[in-house]
Amino acid sequence: MPLSTAVLPAIRPISDLRTNLNDVCEQARELREPIVMTKNGSPALVVMDSAAYEEQRQRDRVYLALREAEIEAKFESRLVAKDEADASMKQLFASWGIDYERN
Fold it and tell me: In what order do the strands lie in the sheet with 35-39?
């Protein structure tokens, strides 16, 4: 993601959950992005609107399903005709010094 379009996360002290809970909830609904709650200057919790969270999870599930389908298509086995399989096996056994016709 280009730096110019990167969005910095909202950061608030964890004490706001006790003193300004309604404001935190409203900000989460408006932003529809995670809010990082800090304790002693370090990240401690992440608060997010539940509808935005579910939308994000759905996007993740769709992405993973598409990625899985992409991988399956790449490694999808195909049907091979008997003559083609026999020719491949004959060549493989010949490379091992075994007569394929005898087995």
Answer: 10-13, 35-39, 42-47
**Separation of alpha carbons 52 and 59, rounded Å:** 11
pTM: 0.59
Per-residue model confidence as pLDDT tens digits over 64-83: 988 998 888 888 777 778 88
Beta bridge partners of 36: 11, 46
The Cα 47–Cα 50 span in angstroms is: 9
- Specify the 3-state DSSP secondary structure of 52: helix
Query: Strands (DSSP E) along the chain, which ranges?
Result: 10-13, 35-39, 42-47
Written as six digits, the tokens of 19 are: 């003193």
44 token code pair = 């401690």
Between CA 4 and CA 58, with CA 64 as vertex, the angle to 5 degrees is: 75
Tokens representing residue 93 in the block: 């056994």
